[in-house]
């Protein structure tokens, strides 16, 4: 299994979390023959990947287990809708998450300071990851991991990858790291406040409260320290910022742009690049790449720590959401997430505005599913109908124009 294949799965997990809310209901579930499932489990038990799993652990956790076809629907789901970066930021870095982040930052100050001293990762960055990954522990995912991973190990197109994760999940239970009834997560098996895959857990999880268990589900100190350890292992450099919003001089040639094309700060200075407010670029980063998420919108210089955030989920927009949220958490006086507006005349909606949109659509008789602030398949279908009736382009996208059209 290549790293890129793993990354594509993780990126899908995030995309599903953001764009679907609940699983898509449009495709029928693939066939999952119970006899085939039982025979597959027996074969797995005898295979090399499961050699550290005792017969008792295997039997106790798989007795009476039925496959879950809905995880295969999620695995095969092709997002029909690509989310503009400004919608992504409007939802992931909204007022609610910033306020919750600032509160969490204060509440967990002592733990975060110990993490800074012992692991060397900025407390605001750790808090930012926590907020985007699980909304500060509010969204852990409710699917039993063993059932999801056993299904994905026996059916579908990524079986060899998921077998490793299934074995790691059983090892977590065998070692008593997490109680069986707490080992729940996303359809793909990401779990806990940090949404680690089971193999990621064994590479990065830390027992920070000293009770002998690495409990990233119920122990906030364990979860936050594990996040920091993940970033450290991904190359995070203590004391460096992730980057900053910048201003390009008129006529700047952006052909060499890209997170990976790092140049010394002096080279950017010579090219006329400044901080967004016009001040000179600081010396806090040795080198940086130019990140342009959308032409004509905010532009950033990003360093090695942005790459560490990127490795959390292999998405630049995702890493940028964490980065911008962490800045808003670290600077309570800062009023705007980005200074340069996103290049759109129809900005995206916060989760609160998504809920308002869903309520207003429901009040007009549209079926939006659950009013949860997540724009899933059902809400998107309702949006299309409403747009059509209002004489708007039926894109299915939730934006400010539609919300205003529905407001009294
Ligand atoms: Ca612990």
CATH topology name of the largest domain: Lysozyme
| Terminal residue distance | 54 Å
Net shape: globular
- The total count of helices amounts to 18
Query: Roughly what fraction of the amino acids lie in strands?
Result: 5-15%
Q: Main β-sheet, in a few words? A: 5 strands, antiparallel
Output mean pLDDT. 92
Which structural class fits the helix and strand makeup?
Answer: alpha+beta
How many distinct domains? 3
Q: Hetero groups bound?
A: calcium ion
CATH class of the largest domain: Mainly Alpha
Percent in helix: 40-55%
CATH architectural label of the largest domain: Orthogonal Bundle
Spatial order of the strands in the main sheet? Answer: 4-6-7-3-5
List how many beta strands DSSP finds. Answer: 7
Order of helices and strands: HHHHHHHHEHHEHHEEHEEEHHHHH
What is the radius of gyration? 22 Å
User: Unreliable segments (pLDDT under 50, ≥5 consecutive)?
Assistant: 1-25
Ordered list of secondary-structure elements with their pairings:
Blueprint: H1 3-19, H2 34-45, H3 55-62, H4 69-76, H5 85-92, H6 95-107, H7 109-118, H8 123-134, E1 143-144, H9 145-154, H10 159-174, E2 184-185, H11 198-204, H12 220-233, E3 243-247, E4 258-264, H13 265-270, E5 274-275, E6 287-291, E7 299-302, H14 304-313, H15 316-330, H16 351-363, H17 377-389, H18 400-406
The protein binds calcium ion.
């Amino acid at each position: 299994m290549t790293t890129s294949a793993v990354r594509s799965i993780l990126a899908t997990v995030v995309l599903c979390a953001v764009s679907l809310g609940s699983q898509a209901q449009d495709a029928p579930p693939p066939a999952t023959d119970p006899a085939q499932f039982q025979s597959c489990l027996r074969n797995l038990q005898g295979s090399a990947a499961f050699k550290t799993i005792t017969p008792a652990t295997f039997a106790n956790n798989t007795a009476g287990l039925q496959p879950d076809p809905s995880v295969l629907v999620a695995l095969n789901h092709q997002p029909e809708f690509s989310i503009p970066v400004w919608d992504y930021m409007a939802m992931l870095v909204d007022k609610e998450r910033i306020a919750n982040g600032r509160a969490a930052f204060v509440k967990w100050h002592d733990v975060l300071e110990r993490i800074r001293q012992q692991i060397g990762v900025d407390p605001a960055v750790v808090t930012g990851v926590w907020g985007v990954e699980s909304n500060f522990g509010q969204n852990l995912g409710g699917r039993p991991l063993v059932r999801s991973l056993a299904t994905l190990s026996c059916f579908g197109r990524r079986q060899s990858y998921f077998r490793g994760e299934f074995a790691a999940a059983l090892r977590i239970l065998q070692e008593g790291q997490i109680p069986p009834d707490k080992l729940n997560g996303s359809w793909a098996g990401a779990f806990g406040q940090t949404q680690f895959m089971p193999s990621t857990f064994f590479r990065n999880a830390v027992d920070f409260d000293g009770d002998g268990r690495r409990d990233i589900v119920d122990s906030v100190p364990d979860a936050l320290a594990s996040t920091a350890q993940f970033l450290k292992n991904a190359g995070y450099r203590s004391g460096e910022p992730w980057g900053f919003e910048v201003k390009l001089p008129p006529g700047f040639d952006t052909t060499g742009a890209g997170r990976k094309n790092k140049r010394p700060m002096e080279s950017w200075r010579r090219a006329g690049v400044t901080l967004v407010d016009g001040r000179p670029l600081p010396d806090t980063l040795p080198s940086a790449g130019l990140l342009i998420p959308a032409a004509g919108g905010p532009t950033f210089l990003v360093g090695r720590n942005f790459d560490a955030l990127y490795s959390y989920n292999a998405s630049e927009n995702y890493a940028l959401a964490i980065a911008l949220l962490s800045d808003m958490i670290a600077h309570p006086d800062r009023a705007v997430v980005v200074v340069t507006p996103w290049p759109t005349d129809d900005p995206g909606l916060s989760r609160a505005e998504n809920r308002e949109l869903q309520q207003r659509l429901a009040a007009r008789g549209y079926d939006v599913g659950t009013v949860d602030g997540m724009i899933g398949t059902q809400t998107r279908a309702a949006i299309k109908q409403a747009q059509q009736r209002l004489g708007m382009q039926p894109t299915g996208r939730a934006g400010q124009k539609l919300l205003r059209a529905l407001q009294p």
